[in-house]
Specification:
By secondary structure, the protein is of the alpha/beta class. Helices cover 42% and strands 12% of the residues. The protein binds pyridoxal-5'-phosphate.
């Protein structure tokens, strides 16, 4: 059982897997029952006997790969999980091998430096001031931004909203709250916002819904109404959340108008850009994020639209002090305040041991360069528009919302909840993997264009397959 030999064998298997998936030679996914998989993978015997190397390892990995959902398959259209660039996977491999949990600098100086660099790169894309590389001896300038990478967008939303709460109600950290705070958020907000509110002691009931138009996009003219609803309920808003873009249908809230409202009300403005912040890299689509620079915080998933393996999310703030104080009062000067060289990220995170997440994103950036990564985002947004035109030109399909991102919802004939069964049949047939969403009171099929190889050919085939499978539902 040697490392190098096993690793070489694995690379061969993975390369074969990628080619086979890209060529659609295997089903995009196959949902076998749990007990069957545990048996097929021979987990109990392997656990008993050990010795998972050499031929035995190869055989196990082959069986494992046979029961994966194949993101490299061009008919993978289901969820917002990135099709990883192999360079990002190698970054993850290096990080797993070296295991440098870099939240304190001495446990991973290189990983911490990469995280610092990547955060600054992202801050610049937003239009916020990057952090200086050297301690100046003075407190960091208030205008300089800050950030940290977290294990996923849900944790990132929690981190950003903790910073918002600490700023608006600093005493709650020590004393706890008593149900007097609120967060204003779109009804279409990701569920992690309500969870964060509950975890932060604001309560899921403390999330006050913003009024939206028929597409679910926030109406800036109605923002004062949500504020008044919160006040009438005896609550004080500590943050307002906007979607960029929403999870279900991929639409962007009007950030500029919302930012103006927040400024007038001294309200923390948090933008959930888990999926859609990557449009900042596209000259064509960055306009959807106009006004983002007025926000106080932003979350941005690299494992969605930046070809980075899960998970890698940035929490970014316009003023670094707000993040430094998220979990600790009077912590503003911690970041560069060390006798040893370097910076510690640990006071900015929920996590204690934290993977060197920056390496995965950095290696994708290094392989593609930022322009080609931006071109990928733009291409995925473009293909969703082309699919929209194609689907709505069919007499038996409807597309209720013109897409802004790479998420597209549609309906077949007059089906509603039957779409759920239709999706199950499509998945069981193995030729397409797509999702569903309930939107405006009706069930829709939902496509997320993540794979750079997915083209209109797949969509034409999908429509035919839907017509075939729908006869049976
Ligand atoms: C995906 C998503 C999240 C959650 O991010 P995870 O990385 O999956 O935890 C939050 N908000 C929005 C808008 C999302 O699309």
């Amino acid at each position: 059982m040697t490392f190098a030999k096993d690793a070489h064998a694995l690379v061969e298997l993975l390369e074969h897997y990628r080619r086979e998936s890209a060529a659609k030679a295997r089903p995009v996914t196959r949902l076998a029952p749990l007990a069957k998989l545990i048996g097929d993978l021979d987990l109990a015997a392997i656990t008993r006997e050990g010795q998972l190397g050499g031929e035995r390892l190869s055989s196990f990995v082959e069986r494992y790969l046979a029961c994966t959902t194949r993101l490299h398959h061009p008919a993978y259209l289901a969820h917002q999980v990135g099709v990883p660039h192999h360079a990002g996977a190698l970054g993850g491999f290096i990080d797993a091998f070296t295991n440098n949990p870099m939240a304190i600098y001495e446990m991973g100086p290189g990983a911490a430096a990469i995280e610092f660099f990547v955060i600054n790169w992202l801050l610049e894309k937003v239009g916020w001031q990057p952090a200086p590389l050297e301690p100046s001896g003075e407190p960091l300038a208030p205008c300089c931004g800050g950030g940290v990478l977290t294990h996923g967008g849900s944790l990132a939303n929690l981190t950003a909203l903790a910073a918002a709460r600490s700023r608006a109600a600093p005493k709650v950290w020590a004393e706890g709250g008593s149900g007097e705070l609120a967060i204003l958020a779109p009804a279409q907000a990701h569920y992690s916002i309500a969870r964060a509110a509950a975890i932060l002691g604001i309560g899921a009931q403390g999330v006050i819904a913003l009024d939206a138009d028929a597409r679910g996009v926030v109406r800036p003219d109605r923002l004062p109404l949500a504020w008044e609803r919160a006040v009438r309920a005896g609550r004080r808003p500590v943050a307002l959340v906007a979607n960029a873009c929403s999870t279900a249908v991929g639409l962007y809230d009007p950030l500029r108008e919302i930012g103006t409202f927040c400024r007038e009300h001294h309200l923390w403005f948090h933008v959930d850009g888990a999926h859609g912040a990557s449009a900042l890299l596209s000259p064509k689509y960055r306009r959807y994020l106009a006004g983002l620079d007025q926000a106080d915080s932003l979350i941005w998933d690299a494992h969605k639209m930046l070809r980075t393996p899960a998970v890698c999310t940035a929490v970014l703030v316009r003023d670094h002090r707000t993040l430094d104080e998220a979990f600790q009062a009077d912590a503003s000067y911690l970041f560069h305040d060390k006798d040893q060289p370097g910076v510690d990220f640990i006071h900015r995170t929920v996590e204690c041991t934290k993977a060197g997440l920056g390496l995965k994103l950095f290696m994708v950036l290094g392989a593609l360069g930022e322009a080609r990564l931006g071109a990928y985002v733009e291409r995925q947004y473009d293909i969703a528009r082309a699919a929209y035109e194609l689907i709505r030109s069919q007499p038996d399909f409807r597309c209720p919302v013109q897409p802004q991102s790479n998420i597209l919802c549609f309906r077949f004939q007059d089906l509603d909840a039957e779409h759920l069964r239709l999706r199950d049949r499509l998945i069981a047939a193995g030729s397409f993997h797509l999702s569903t969403t309930s939107w405006n009171g009706h069930w829709h099929l939902r496509l997320v264009f993540m794979n750079p190889d997915t083209g209109l050919g797949e969509i034409r085939d999908l429509l035919e397959e839907i017509r075939r499978q729908a006869r049976a539902v």
